[in-house]
Amino acid sequence: MQHQLTKENWVDMFKQIGLTEDQMKKWHHIFEKSHPEGHKAFLSWLRIPPEKIVEIRGNSK
After folding, report:
1. Is the pLDDT of residue 1 over 50?
2. Hey, how many other C-beta atoms are within 10 angstroms of the C-beta on 41?
3. Domain total of the chain
4. Is the distance from CB of 14 to CB of 35 less than 8 angstroms?
């Protein structure tokens, strides 16, 4: 069975390297600005519900 990373796994890794909430928001902002479709695809890959993806992307602009 292949393990699928979750949003929680990803956030945990960010925290392990010392990123703050503000730095994670900045990461989303840069990702959205530089590669909007890639950002959307990444969030979908993490199995984030579509309505939450819309919210995250809106907050990242």
Report:
1. no
2. 12
3. 1
4. no
Assess if residue 23 is contained within a domain: yes
Residues spanned by the domain of 30 = 7-59
Place of tokens 């993806």: 53
Q: At what angle do helices 21-34 and 50-59 cross, to 10 degrees?
A: 90
| pTM of the entire predicted model | 0.85
Cα 45 to Cα 9, 28, 30, 36, 42, distances in angstroms: 13, 15, 18, 14, 5
For residue 1, being part of any structural domain is answered with no
* Distance separating alpha carbons of residues 17 and 4, to the nearest angstrom: 21
Residues in the chain: 61
Render pLDDT for 5-60 as a digit per residue (tens, 0 to 9).
Answer: 899 999 999 999 999 999 999 999 999 999 999 999 999 999 999 999 999 999 99
